[in-house]
Every structure is written in structure tokens, then in C-alpha cells.
Amino acid sequence: TYKAKYIALTKVVKEALYLYNSYNFNLTNLGFNPINKPKIFINNLVAKNLAENPKFYKKSKYIDIKYYFARESLLNKDTILFYIDTKSNIADILTKLLGKVIFHNILNIIYNNNNNNNNNNNNNNNNNNNNNNNNNNNTYYNNYIKEITY
Q1: What is the pTM (predicted TM-score) of this model?
Q2: Which residue range is the domain that position 30 belongs to?
Q3: Helix (H) or strand (E) segment spanning residue 119
Q4: For the chain, which terminal residue's Cβ has fewer other Cβ atoms within 10 angstroms, N or C?
């Protein structure tokens, strides 16, 4: 439900701000530039709207006031909140039972990102084994897909 997501969002914001402030304190003491503000992704539009809009919602009257920390953080521009669609949320592959199509889409996202990183590393090293690595990756991926779909 949106209440559980909102409570989880508050806990994530607290952790993110703790880490952000700790890193920035240490970085500035060492003479480095501070890092960017924490970006938090959420896949529940109701919880996102509740955090971003300070108006009173009838449904939200049962949420304890201590969980409005996330809202204050967003209003103070201490954190940045983004909505991520379930179809694009790669964390769902580890936490939910997904349909076949969504599972394959997320697996393709992960595989393509990993493959792009491997290609960048190979290009930087000027390896001649680039084609062999891609063929091995494609074979592994195709075998994995066959294994999980049958």
C-alpha cells in the first residue's frame, strides 16, 4: 500500500541524508568538492505525491507525523525524488514474482548495461578478443533464457 511505501521512503531519506552529510563533511575536510544531493527512486505514485505535496490528504490522516520527514526533506530540497515505472525497476527482479514479459525486459536492461560496460572496458584496453567476449556473453544469455523459460 502507499502507506508502507511512504514509511519506507522516510526511512530511505533518513539513511540517504545521513550518508550524504557524512560523506560531504569528510570530503570538504579533505579539500574535495561535495557530492550531489541524494536521488531517491520510488515506484508508487501515491506515496510520491504525498511526499511532494504539502496539502492534507484525507487518506493520509492516519500516517504518524514522524513519517513526514521525507516531505520536509523534499521541500527543503535536501533530496530529489524520482518516479520509476515497475516495468523499468530492475530491483523488482530480486523482490517480486514478475510476469514473463516484464522479467525478460528487466533482464535485457541488466544484460545490455552489463554488456555496454564490458564493451567500454574492452575498447579502453584495445583487446582483439572483443568479438569473442560478446559471442560468449550472447551464448550465455541465450542459454540462460532457454533454461528459465522451459
Answers
A1: 0.61
A2: 2-84
A3: helix 100-125
A4: C
Output Rg (C-alpha) for the chain, integer angstroms: 21
User: Are the beta carbons of 119 and 111 closer than 8 angstroms?
Assistant: no
For residue range 12-42, list pLDDT tens digits in order. Answer: 999 999 999 888 888 888 888 878 889 998 8
Number of domains in the chain: 2
**Which cell goes with 17?**
541524508
CB under 8 Å to 96, separation ≥6 — which residues? Answer: none
* Residues 26, 71 within the same domain: yes
pLDDT digit string (tens) for 72-88? Answer: 888 899 999 999 887 77
Closest by CA position to 5, among listed 54, 55, 41, 58:
41
CA distance 144 to 150: 10
